[in-house]
Amino acid sequence: MTTRRSLLKSAVAAGSFVLAGLTLTAPVAADELETLKEKGKVRIAMSGAYPPFNFVNDQNEVVGFDPAIGAEINKRIGLETEIVTTAWDGIIGGLLAKKYDAIVGSMTITDERAEVVDFVGPYYTTRRAIFTKPGSGITSLDDLEDAKVGVTLGETHEEWAKEKGYKVRTYKGLPELIMELENGRVDAIVNDSIAAILALKENGYEYEMFDDPESEPFGAGIAIRKDNPDLKAAMQAALDAMMEDGTYTAIAEEWIGEDIR
């Protein structure tokens, strides 16, 4: 999952403006790990619309692989977890505005995003895939040229599809994407492969898919605000320990059905 170049450029521009207003005598800000420990909790953000990685269950609770990973990392640092759901296309802006403390929402690590946030991880790996209904005749990227292509607003897949010149339709999240494909309002959807496969199978929908042959597998990371080396190191150490002691595998098998690191 991901945020468009325009938002990131705006964030970079805003950051440049703020820096320009600082004097050389301005005090160095304390690392946010200290502040979070004083508060006793970490606010982690996600869309809540990306099952099984993060979604709202029948009890109106945000659950899934991402919340479980985030909560376990925070517990090992000695902090409670508060989950915040927000629209994906503005999620980095919300982090920079300090509406929450980290993004644990299956965010793809990209060089462009790394210009404005720091990443912990990756905590799992997936790749871009194209999904269609059986018998659609769409079996390659060339076949998408005349197709209606559905993507989630703000993801890297949206930017990729627009750069390809496809006829793009944007939606709020994976459940809506799948419904649009099933109802024939789009001819294909583009998404991270693991999440889409699991969601399609969960709903009992038949589908065909092929990987984007031009893209390498990519990692999902936890985004935090820049210049917080202590917080980044503590979260990375907790993640590494989870992967070593079997906790990560147990969480992955519960929510995904297999180890996806």
From TrEMBL:
Q: Which PROSITE patterns match?
A: TAT (PS51318)
What are the boundaries of the signal sequence?
1-30
Task: State what protein this is by name.
Answer: Amino acid ABC transporter substrate-binding protein (PAAT family)
**Which keywords label this protein?**
Signal
* Bilayer-spanning residue ranges: none
Q: Which Pfam families match?
A: SBP_bac_3 (PF00497)
Q: Give the Solute-binding protein family 3/N-terminal domain ranges.
A: 41-259
